[in-house]
Amino acid sequence: MGWIKGEGEIEASYKISKIAAHVPDLVVYSTLTNDIPYAENFHGVLLFADVSGFTNLTEKFCLSCKKGYGADELTRTLNSYIGEIVSHILDNGGDILNYAGDAILALWTVERVQLSEVISLVVKCSLNIQDQCGVRETGVGCQLKVKIGISAGKLSKVIVGDEISQYFVVIGRAVDEVRLAEGLAVASTIILSPNAWELCERDNIAIDPIENERAVKVRYIKREPSFSVEKYQDSIGTSVEHEKVTRVIGRKVNLAARLMMHYPGVVSCDSETCYYSKLPAFYFNELPKKAMKGVKNPGVLYQFMANKHQMYDHLM
């Protein structure tokens, strides 16, 4: 039962992860020793994605679904669509700051000298979102679409409240500009705010000007961003614990995909999955360590060895 060591630690980590997965990194990694209120200045790139078609979809489900099932179907459809957009953002290193109905605000924190490179990374992420999620057909003949605004520049995180309850808000010119950019966007388009266009790698992003506006419409990116997601995460000090606590869903999905690639033909899992299976230790054999792209120190990995007859006997 060697894999069960640290049971209390794993249990505590699991509970914290469930909560922290719903909290922005900007809050999870806040300094806790400052007097309240206080502000922290930083540079960042903001992405504002707004889903259109929600009202029509709601009406369609109310009319076409069986009584009592419309709300459930609506929830499942929206969760699936918005969840896919969120996955693109997380996979590209973004931090979800807030949900506002059917809109998402995401942040990439950067050093000032990295702004242009990370803007390209966010533009590439936005193009992928539009390619995969730009227009989504639903089962009731209604389309969901997304429009995206991008801004960049100096931001401030302000913490207010008292010792019991604290609240955070992100303010700055980039916040105002991302709202402006999203407001200029129409379904299935991406708009760069004036400041983002000024700071980006202009020779790498093809755009169309917008009449009487300093903001621009993104057409395509000419070459892959030189600043990779891995490089970005390293630059902001991404650690194993950071990944473990704040990107629970994204990290687990990525780990599962890597396990299938690097340990083909077997049922493999990490120590946390092994522990929560509540199965006897002799059902698992430790796997040899392998370097897996995008996975840092996954811990001990196991191969599940039991056959279906053993599982049947165990469950009975």
UniProtKB/TrEMBL annotation:
<protein>
    <recommendedName>
        <fullName>Guanylate cyclase domain-containing protein</fullName>
    </recommendedName>
</protein>
<dbReference type="GO" id="GO:0009190">
    <property type="term" value="P:cyclic nucleotide biosynthetic process"/>
</dbReference>
<dbReference type="InterPro" id="IPR001054">
    <property type="entry name" value="A/G_cyclase"/>
</dbReference>
<dbReference type="GO" id="GO:0004016">
    <property type="term" value="F:adenylate cyclase activity"/>
</dbReference>
<dbReference type="GO" id="GO:0005737">
    <property type="term" value="C:cytoplasm"/>
</dbReference>
<dbReference type="GO" id="GO:0035556">
    <property type="term" value="P:intracellular signal transduction"/>
</dbReference>
<keyword id="KW-0547">Nucleotide-binding</keyword>
<keyword id="KW-0067">ATP-binding</keyword>
<dbReference type="Pfam" id="PF00211">
    <property type="entry name" value="Guanylate_cyc"/>
</dbReference>
<feature type="domain" description="Guanylate cyclase">
    <location>
        <begin position="45"/>
        <end position="182"/>
    </location>
</feature>
<keyword id="KW-0456">Lyase</keyword>
<dbReference type="InterPro" id="IPR029787">
    <property type="entry name" value="Nucleotide_cyclase"/>
</dbReference>
<dbReference type="GO" id="GO:0005524">
    <property type="term" value="F:ATP binding"/>
</dbReference>
